[in-house]
Amino acid sequence: MNSRGEVRLDPGVIEAGEDGSEIELVVTHTEWSMTVAVLKRAAELISGLNAKVILLAVHTVPYPASFASATASHAHLVGQLVDLATQCPIPVTPQVVLARGREEGFRYMLKPESIVLVGTRKHLWQTPEEHLARALAHAGHKVALLHV
User: What is the pTM of this model?
Assistant: First the structure.
């Protein structure tokens, strides 16, 4: 994917690195059913490549609340990601980050020029996932928006 700074819609393939090194593919978790579909699509996109998949979720905690107050819901989200990772046909590493805002959390966790898959549904208006994809592309990541 040679598309730094832009969003690619439903790519057919993900290109391997020039030196055959391992590709790190980040799948954003937004909702259960969408993440399941994106993980299946990720398995198709990376078949035959030396790749590792990270399932990344951002648990937002509003400003007045402390991060310690979110332990029960954080544990539930971690459990959901582990379940999703075990259901996937490829090895997936689940990660959860606590942040004040969703975009801020993703930007904090992503390495420079990461390859990111974001799932969304088709609507007449811009979805929150499309907004996230554009923000991550603007930050310099290689983003693929998958319509589920």
Answer: 0.83
